[in-house]
């Protein structure tokens, strides 16, 4: 009942905002003026939500709907395509009632059957490293009439509404998305604030306002072009030349510092900073002869100097991270610092010698060249420098574009690789659960029964602020195993032309850009 009340209150607030925020176009060129262009380095890996558990969500959030969502400023899921609640006290039956009159951009009706189809196909297709891993607690989906959808869970799971709010659970029309395979025609059909008018892989996505959209978003522009860049410098140049209006992801630390300094040549630009929950970390492959050795992983944990990494590469735009759960999220600890302290070469040498390792350990470190911005290569160069300076390691580093990189780590080809994590939802569960279990998002199975038990216990608790003990215990185990090594936690920045408004509201609690919040100040 409390969850339902929250949704009703949020709907009331949304109505007030809708009335208060309306404006009139200033002239006959309003239609032209309300087209926005956004640059990003976060290109979709696929257009089918059943396959993506990555930055593809940046596009999905704007063209698809989910049953519930995270409007800017919310910390719990709110109504989007439906009003939802737990129908029992055990957190095992979750019921949603769809809005009336929902349609997809192709004219098909969005009904309970479409919702069931959308969720079921994720589990049926079961893409490796895909969003099936989010649905581990789901038993079955049932429908009643056209508008009622009931999710029956195997176990209590208070995080289930948060999962349904992720873009992975986007609702798709059954007529265009097969039940047992991915859509492969390079097109996309949703019911969100925008329709995808056209898409050029690696180049751009053209979005146009969907007139029949019914959801929580108040759309402040008529069309958006999302341009995909592999190079942050080219993207910044495009912003300065007013070829794009805003930048979402991919700013380098140097670019952020440059904009913060407010040089005369950048007077026409603005920088919006928000608290970030995105993290970077290393993943160790337990099947690799080197990285599979616990002593090797612990020695690396003893050597890595996060402070130097952040200072040299990220110049104050990030901060050292000593647990997988970042600051600002319940359950955050500094367990890695508590265990290892400051970087210490002698201690690392002792760890290796105690394991009978007396020769330098050769390892290859892998990273993606086009996912997290141009600073990724310097970051790995710094990690190589730190480790090789000890004389204990010989490190080679190699980068690949995201599509190839993803296939490689999912196939277990990399001894050590770097990943970034932008939260699916703002809960500590989302910084632990995705990385453990046989079908985790990393493609490297991590059987951790003790961690799984802590997750089970925490999901029985509706008050997500009361699960600290479980996640502290889970992080102790992660530090013991060192299968994952957290490096840093970032801040989020949106750079834009001074004439663009809405940047401060454009990032939701999942750090996904809501492009409908952007507008031209002169005409709104």
TrEMBL record:
Signal sequence region: 1-20
Pfam families: SBP_bac_5
Listed InterPro entries: Peptide/Ni-bd, SBP_5, SBP_5_dom
Any single biological process term in GO: peptide transport
Localization terms from the record: Cell envelope
Listed transmembrane segments: none
Source organism, top-level taxon: Bacteria
Domain Solute-binding protein family: 87-440
Listed name of the protein: Solute binding transport lipoprotein
Naturally occurring in which organism (per UniProt): Streptomyces pristinaespiralis (strain ATCC 25486 / DSM 40338 / CBS 914.69 / JCM 4507 / KCC S-0507 / NBRC 13074 / NRRL 2958 / 5647)
Source organism phylogeny: Bacteria, Bacillati, Actinomycetota, Actinomycetes, Kitasatosporales
């Amino acid at each position: 009942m409390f969850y339902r009340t929250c949704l009703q209150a949020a709907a009331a607030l949304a109505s007030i905002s809708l009335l208060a925020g309306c404006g009139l176009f200033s002239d006959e060129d309003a239609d032209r003026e309300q087209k926005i262009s956004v640059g990003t380095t976060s290109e979709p890996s696929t257009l089918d939500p059943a396959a993506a558990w990555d930055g593809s969500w940046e596009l999905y959030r704007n063209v698809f709907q989910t049953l519930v969502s995270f409007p800017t400023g919310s910390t719990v899921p709110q109504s989007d395509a439906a009003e939802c609640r737990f129908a029992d006290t055990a957190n095992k039956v979750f019921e949603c009632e769809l809005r009336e009159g929902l349609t997809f951009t192709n004219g098909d009706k969005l009904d309970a059957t479409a919702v069931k189809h959308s969720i079921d196909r994720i589990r049926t297709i079961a893409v490796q490293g895909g969003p099936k891993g989010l649905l581990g607690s789901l038993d079955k989906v049932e429908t009643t009439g056209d508008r009622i959808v009931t999710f029956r869970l195997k176990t209590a799971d208070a995080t289930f509404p948060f999962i349904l709010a992720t873009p992975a659970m986007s609702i798709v029309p059954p007529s265009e998305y097969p039940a047992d395979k991915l859509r492969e025609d390079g097109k996309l059909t949703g019911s969100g604030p925008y329709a995808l008018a056209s898409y050029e892989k690696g180049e751009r996505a053209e979005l146009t306002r969907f007139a029949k959209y019914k959801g929580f978003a108040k759309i402040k522009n008529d069309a958006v072009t999302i341009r995909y860049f592999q190079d942050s410098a080219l993207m910044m140049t495009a912003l300065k030349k007013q070829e794009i209006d805003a930048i979402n992801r991919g700013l380098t630390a140097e670019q952020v510092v440059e904009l913060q300094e407010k040089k005369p040549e950048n007077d026409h630009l603005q920088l919006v900073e928000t608290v970030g929950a995105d993290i970077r970390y290393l993943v160790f492959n337990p099947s690799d002869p080197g990285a599979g050795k616990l002593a090797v992983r612990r020695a690396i944990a003893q050597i890595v100097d996060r402070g130097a990494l952040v200072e040299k590469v990220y110049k104050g735009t990030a901060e050292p991270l000593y647990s997988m759960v970042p600051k600002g999220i319940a359950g955050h600890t500094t367990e890695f610092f508590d265990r290892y302290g400051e970087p210490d070469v002698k201690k690392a040498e002792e760890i290796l010698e105690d394991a009978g390792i007396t020769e330098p350990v050769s390892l290859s470190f892998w990273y993606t060249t086009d996912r997290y911005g141009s600073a990724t290569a310097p970051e790995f160069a710094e990690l190589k420098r730190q480790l090789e300076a000890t004389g204990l390691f010989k490190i080679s580093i190699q980068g690949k574009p995201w599509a190839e990189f993803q296939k490689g780590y999912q196939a277990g080809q990399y001894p050590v690789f770097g990943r970034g994590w932008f939260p699916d939802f703002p809960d500590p569960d989302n910084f632990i659960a995705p990385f453990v279990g046989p079908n985790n998002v990393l493609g490297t199975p991590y059987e951790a029964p003790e961690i799984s038990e802590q997750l089970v216990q925490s999901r029985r608790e509706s008050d997500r602020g009361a699960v600290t003990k479980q996640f502290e215990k889970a992080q102790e185990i992660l530090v013991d195993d060192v299968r994952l090594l957290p490096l840093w936690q970032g801040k989020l920045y949106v750079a834009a032309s001074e004439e663009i408004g809405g940047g401060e509201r454009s990032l939701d609690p999942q750090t996904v850009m809501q492009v409908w919040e952007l507008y031209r100040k002169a005409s709104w």
